[in-house]
Amino acid sequence: MTTTPEAQITDRAGDWQKFLKKHYKKELGEITREYPHRRSLAIDYRTLEKWGKKGLDLADELLQSPGKVIGDVKDAIRQYNLIFTKDDEEKANHVNIRFSNLPKKIAVRDIRSHHMNTFISVEGIIRKTTEVRPRVTSAVFRCLQCGTKTAPYKQFYGRFQEPYRPCTQCERQTKMELVPNLSTFVDSEKIRIQETPEGLRGGEQPQTLDVDVIDDLTGMVAPGDRVIVNGILRSIQRVTQGTKSTLFDIYLECNSIEVSEKEFEEVAISEEDEQEILALSQDPELYYKISRSIAPTIFGNDEVKEAISLILFGGIPKEMPDGSHLRGDIHMLLVGDPGIAKSQMLRYVIKLSPRGIYTSGKSSTSAGLTATAVKDEFGDGRWTLEAGALVLADMGIAAVDEMDKMAKEDRSALHEAMEQQSISVAKAGITATLRSRCALLGAANPKMGRFDEFAPIADQINMPPSLLSRFDLIFILTDKPNPQLDRAIADHILKAHNVGELIEHHRKNPIEGVDDEYIRKELAPVTPEIEPEKFRKYIAYAKRNCFPMLTPKAKEKLIEYYLNLRSLADSNKPVPVTARQLEALIRLGEASARIRLAKEIDIGDSERVIRIVDTCLKQVAYDAQTGTFDIDKLVTGIPKQRKDLLRSIKEVIRNLADDSGIAQKEQVIETLLAQGHSKDDIEKRIQDLKNGGEALEPRKGVLRLL
Prior knowledge:
The chain is an alpha/beta fold. Among the domains are: 10-100, mini-chromosome maintenance (MCM) complex, chain A, domain 1; 108-259, CATH 2.40.50.140; 546-635, Helicase, Ruva Protein, domain 3 (Orthogonal Bundle); 640-705, Arc Repressor Mutant, subunit A (Orthogonal Bundle), CATH 1.10.10.10. Helices cover 38% and strands 22% of the residues. The chain is built from 24 helices and 29 strands. It is globular and about 105 Å long. 33% of the residues are buried.
């Protein structure tokens, strides 16, 4: 008699016992020795698949009915005493069986009802976490009348279950109270994961999924971490004001968490891609091609594009033996007149970067940029930690547009994120440090909306000096009429629009003689040299595999440039450059060598970097009146010359003041004119002193220091 497949009795516990004895003997031994500190057995799904036909059956069964499979594994441990002796059989229920490395990951937005109660693997960024708190898993109740205790009631995620029947002993319909010391509790935490920004199509709202984490997995992750969560998809009925709804909410009952430390692993690079990348790195025109591939629809701005290419590749982050961290990310600020395509550039960079977040300053708060502690229904009214844009852009690029429109207190949130590359939160009893290892690319407009050629630049950038000094590169983009350049820009813009019109027209009403080849030829001026997909792979490959070192010649060149700038300072002149600028030079040099996948930073890289930094310093810190670089002007916002004049005015007022501290304004101005200052400057500075609350004009023509 043949048995039907359904009638074949399978000894699943026996199968699991064979599998565990073969592959996990060492781990079982460790749990035996270290229980209860180690109480989780991690099983690799790939090992299970490779274990013959039976292994495949078990693997398939895990995906379809995970609850049963986990029960089978626990049965195998209990029946065959794989961990505990016969006396401790009950402890087998407290061992966690965890499965990891599932081959197929599912996107949060693709989860549907047929996935319910199956084993799935979801990838994302942690958006929020709650505190770790105990949750009751089986509750024992006591009758208030006669004190009889009930048998343990199993408790599940969500609502608390109480016994409805009367007490078995005195049979009275009385209230029952919980007996905490006889009930069992488990550590529990809720986390919310959000889709990774790389996988989103433009303008999509990233979707989230709540995850229930218990026991030894709690407290493992913080907001901003990129994780793969494996678990069973469960549902819970919605209850609104006591009425049960037909809608159910889903959550993931977490089985295991894999924290993905490796950056850019999402960008898959095949062997063919690798060959192409290596061939491209040998191209003599590589630097030109790369800067041509950044925002090709924008004409010119070659220096800015070259600097952006360095930012995309980045320097090398260094961890020192004493635990200190040197950042490798390069920060850049574009300050320019309106209509110069700053935002367009920022958006293009985010598209190119393997990881990038774009945000606009006006609509960002400090909490939205960094991280915040919020009290909401997610943590059942408890405080939860939520990650902001800079944390989500960890290991990538954060582009902040309209930085000048940000509120003062929101801008100060960027200080720590830029230099220390971490964000500290101390709110509502939650003290945490989140990582934000991202390059910041900022864009801002001048204070007056447009640049005033005659006023110092520091006056026109509406940003605190402490923030400006953290940028490695600051580009000033002015929009001055220039007939030749304007014609070239106009040609470029019209060409781009013309081709766009042609393509759209051809799509609706085909034009004779227009084929793909013709369109490709027409599109040539606005086509990137390296297509974006390949460019992203190139960046990811360089960041994974290329860690260049400084050669003595390149080192000497950078030191020489640095000392040369420092030497422009004597006792009377402003100090032009700080050590921060030297660090910026090194980072840029590393990025320059990374572009061509070199192992060494040579003198060519040094020269390229010096040229770019020189361009920036000339625009930002050059003091036309003294003919020297004045980094004071950039870092403190007040040129040294002006500081000296303010000091002189105060001295003169003190010297000329009578007993009551009052000096004649005319005399003060005359004395200063004799020292060689201009009248306009003197009057402006006196006004500054009055505005700053340092001097008073009690009546017309007299001055008094406060």
